Amino acid sequence: MNINPEFQRQLYLECSQARLIGIPLILGAVFTLSYFADNHRLASASTQAAMTLFLIITLLWGARQTMDSVVEEYRDRTWDTQRLSALSPWQMAWGKWLGSTIMVWYAGLICLLVYLIASDPGQPLFWPCFYATGGALLVQGLSLLLGQISVRQGHTKTGSTLLIVLLGVFIIAPWNRFASFAYFQQTTAVTWYHLRVIQQDFELISLLLALFWCSIGNYRLMSQELGIRTIPWYWLAFAVFLIVYLGGFLPGTSYPFSLMAFMVCISLSYIGVVIERNEAIRIKRLLTYLQQHNWRRSAEELPIWCVSLLLATPFALLLSVSEHPMRNLGSSFHFYPLPVLLLLLRDLALYLFFSYGKNPQRALSLTLLWGVLLYGILPGMFTLAGQNWLAALFFPLWADSAGGALVCALLQTAALSALLFRRWQESV
């Protein structure tokens, strides 16, 4: 029987005798306490304790394990050796995803077993277990994604990254649903594109879709780490999926849908430029392939943030010719789609400017600092001083007309593009 070598290696690292014996002993002590709390039987207290422990173990410990499975390799200087192995990206991804959490699931299965035994007969046991397991797999997969992104940016300390994961867990995890059977017995419906779907069924389908896209993301990042060329079709497909998925919750008019699609593309552009490997030589290769009309190689070198930016352009044009009350959000703040698109291009140029510098690891922090200055401090300072035209120069959405906002945004974008071009020439 051929076992994934990476999965087998993780088993050797994680499955120690102390853990195999200690985990059941600790969990046994906890469930003994809940057994006495339930008047010498396994009942509601044991059920809640089992599911709570399952969530804590699989979400918190599992997230840490999957993230460290990549970061520790980089920290111990063994990551380059793994990148030269003959393993496929999918073997490497799921080997780390499931192998590094083998003891997590060992403890989690014990908790689920107690949960099943302690639950009352006739309760819908499958759906709570399926929901909890799928949610744990999703959080662990996202942690693996963040681990690969951290390694790509040269960050070997997982503290801040793990804090983001834990914050997301506590915000989005529906802690009280898994231990409450009433949630899985309700018939509340969700309207999506005029279709009425039972809420828990819709959420379970959404969870499976999230797991699918998380797997695709891990595969794509691992492919890049192993030096395998891929076309960014997945990023385009993911953007289209988000637009279609979120569009089902909006009213039937075209403006809210176009606005939502525009914001999705903008968000993905920001995310894409952060997670992408921004190398000056890559842009040179892209330009060379374009001059040679080598379209496949050009697509392989195309940064994913370019895909989001190109997809946002038609929605910006459509919003610009549409009239809607949402365009004016106040007496001084306006929504001008084309200037917003140019501001996005300016921010991307600013991030790439720092990425091509001597310390690319500081590109994100420096971009955020300049973003605070350009979006908040400088416009606010000039507004308080009564110089509204200077405030609009730095933040074009405060301009009184779309033309003025477009000119201000063009000036900023042109200035940053010129600086970026000079930095790029120096880098290559």
Commentary on this structure:
The protein is mainly alpha-helical and 428 residues long. The protein has two domains: 5-228, no CATH class; 230-327, no CATH class. The protein contains 19 helices and two strands. The protein has helices spanning 5-14, 17-37, 44-75, 79-83, 89-99, 102-118, 126-152, 159-172, 175-178, 199-225, 233-247, 254-275, 280-291, 295-301, 304-320, 337-355, 363-384, 388-394, 402-427; strands at 189-192, 195-198. A two-stranded antiparallel ribbon has the order 1-2. A hairpin with a 2-residue loop joins strand 1 and strand 2 (195-198). It is globular, with a radius of gyration of 25 Å. It starts with a helix and ends with a helix. The relative contact order is 0.07. The mean pLDDT is 85.
Alpha-beta classification: mainly alpha
Widest beta sheet: strand line-up: 1-2
Beta-strand content bin: under 5%
Distance between the termini: 49 Å
Tally of individual helices: 19
List the helices and strands and how they pair.
Layout (H helix, E strand, L loop, with lengths): L4 H10 L2 H21 L6 H32 L3 H5 L5 H11 L2 H17 L7 H27 L6 H14 L2 H4 L10 E4 L2 E4 H27 L7 H15 L6 H22 L4 H12 L3 H7 L2 H17 L16 H19 L7 H22 L3 H7 L7 H26 L1
Antiparallel strand pairs: 1-2
Helix pairs in contact: 1-5, 2-3, 2-6, 3-6, 3-7, 3-8, 5-10, 7-8, 7-10, 11-12, 12-15, 12-16, 13-14, 15-16, 16-17, 16-19, 17-18
